């Protein structure tokens, strides 16, 4: 059990900066620190840095980038910030939103120019809630490629990464200054490492069932699609040190994880004209609100399952994502020349499914808004061959966490900063507010990359 120990022991080694967690937040922080001339040691509990980043689509939203300009896209951090606040019902701190939206674009350009990460703009569809095309990804459009390239960049830059180093304790003095940590190794040995500054980049509490039941009860029994190591250590350590927390019920869910394959299916299959039905062949929600808020409604359906229905055109768009190609290779995406044949392949009640299918297509022809509030104006009809994938809802990661300022310093309830503690990514309170519906696509990697860079660059 991770804990905070109020003493300053003898340390076997000391470094200016310790980073707990080798996901996108931790690696970006270490790269930023290294560029500033600060020696950083990344502590990663796994044999190889992966984290929740590897399970994501690896897409980072940013505004005003050179890739947008090359595509003729007009966008700005202020417009991006307005989209975040609108999606999150005005709950996030406006200064925090401004900090991350102004930071993330230049950081992506720095990662590309200095460290060779070949980002490009997704130009063939727009994620829900974004008023401009601003999702940036690597060629495979996968989180695995993002984390692998960040790790390679960190190694090339001389960042020290210590794998299989599970942080089990923080040592702090009476002023709440963190003096160092204790790590446990797989062989049972332990080591104490001192530090001048500590960055918590170990995500949130999605892997801690009791905390999920307390803060996100609707998803407590659903699939957890994040890293099992996300046990809430950052929040628990921070609270023990007197830090403020906010929006602990905030989270990112996803209503489209292939079942039983456990492969993420891009929400493009919905946004480009597809729809979802339950195992009774009936729709149950406005699917265009967003994939995060879709998780709970999907889990509320019979057997906690739904089916995404789309066509070959949409599959072609989705195929740019490595996850979707994997799902096709695994046989998770059946297709048929007629809707009734598709229903038969999926074991859906044909009559009910056909009624749903025809109702959706009629809405498209008329440009209507349906009873769920979904507008089909300008949405193209589906055409054969028709495709589908059986999916479930999942919790990806939590969005609430430690309150930080514009330098990613962890704050107390009175607004003062803890002496040398920083947080990034899921360890910090994000910009999604307290509800799943507040999550704007990409908010997770947004705060990982932006707060990671801010924390790494911060002066002691």
From TrEMBL:
InterPro entries hit by this protein: FAD-dep_OxRdtase_2_FAD-bd, FAD-oxidoreductase_2, FAD/NAD-bd_sf, Succ_DH/fumarate_Rdtase_cat_sf
Q: Cite the FAD-dependent oxidoreductase 2 FAD-binding domain residue spans from the record.
A: 18-435
Q: Which GO terms describe its biological process?
A: steroid metabolic process
Instruction: List the keywords (alphabetical).
Output: FAD, Flavoprotein, Oxidoreductase
Gene3D superfamilies linked = FAD/NAD(P)-binding domain (3.50.50.60), Succinate dehydrogenase/fumarate reductase flavoprotein, catalytic domain (3.90.700.10)
Which Pfam families does the protein's record reference? FAD_binding_2
The name this protein goes by in its record: FAD-dependent oxidoreductase
In alphabetical order, the GO MF annotations are: oxidoreductase activity
Give the protein's cofactors: FAD
Superkingdom as given in the UniProt entry: Bacteria
Q: Does the keyword Repressor apply?
A: no
Q: Which SUPFAM superfamilies match?
A: FAD/NAD(P)-binding domain, Succinate dehydrogenase/fumarate reductase flavoprotein, catalytic domain
